[in-house]
Amino acid sequence: MTDTRKQMPPNHSEGKQTMRSILLSGFTVLSVIAATAVAPAHAQISITRGGGNTNLAKGPYSEAFQSTTTLGGVAKGHGVAITNGGHNRNVASGAYSFAGQDTTTVGGFASGHGKAITNGGWNNNVAKGYGSSATQSTLTLGGTAYGHGKSITSGGYNKNLALGAYSSADQQVATVGGLAGHYGKTIVSCGYNKNLALGKGSSASQQVFTGAQ
């Protein structure tokens, strides 16, 4: 009997649909999260680190999935609310690879000439190999700075690679700038994203949305 597994890698369409559903559901519940989430700390400097995660399924028949959600804190009185939810790495480098990654970062709250700095980008999603399929969705929602403050939101510099024979790479990046009230400034950056599917059955799709409140 001939082993036909090499000729028929698994169908990753279900995984892609799951990733898209996760992103869409994230949009629908973000208003609830932003309105009801009570930040874990009240201080002059609030630093929340949820990024820097690595998820690997390296090898034949590989399948890797990663989901990261980071909610920023509260800083009052000329404070700084820093939220780092990016710099995540998701790799399924192998024969029948599938790698999916979902990153959601919600910025904190800074009042009194404060700064709300939200970093949700610099994510890397790779499915390098023969049955590869890589999907990545990155959602970054900027923080709120009141009283001549600054709201700085960065959600770009993401990479999505499926370098391989039956490759398919899908990346969706959405960055919504924070709110800066009372003569404040809002700075939003979401550029420098890369989406590559270099290979035999390649298909690459990228959607980037950048908005400000």
Low-confidence stretches: 1-8, 27-41
The tally of structural domains comes to 1
Radius of gyration: 19 Å
Q: What is the averaged pLDDT score?
A: 82
Query: Which bin fits the share of residues in helices?
Result: 10-25%
What is the 3D shape? elongated
Tally of DSSP helical segments: 1
Order of helices and strands: HEEEEEEEEEEEEEEEEEE
Largest sheet: 8 strands, parallel
* Distance from first to last alpha carbon: 62 Å
User: Strand-residue fraction?
Assistant: 35-45%
Structural category: mainly beta
Number of strands: 18
Topology:
Elements: H1 13-36, E1 42-49, E2 54-56, E3 64-71, E4 74-84, E5 89-91, E6 99-106, E7 109-110, E8 115-119, E9 124-126, E10 134-141, E11 144-145, E12 150-154, E13 159-161, E14 169-176, E15 179-180, E16 185-189, E17 194-196, E18 204-211
Parallel strand pairs: 1-4, 2-5, 3-6, 4-7, 4-8, 5-9, 6-10, 7-11, 8-12, 9-13, 10-14, 11-15, 12-16, 13-17, 14-18
What does this protein structure show overall?
With 213 residues, the protein is mostly beta strands. It has one domain (13-211). It is 11% helix and 45% strand. The chain contains one helix and 18 strands. The strands form three sheets. Strands 1, 4, 7, 8, 11, 12, 15 and 16 form an eight-stranded parallel sheet that branches. The longest helix is centred in the N-terminal third of the chain and has 24 residues, at 13-36. The radius of gyration is 19 Å and the shape is elongated. The protein starts with 12 loop residues before the first helix and ends with a strand. The relative contact order is 0.16. The model is unreliable at 1-8 and 27-41 (pLDDT under 50).
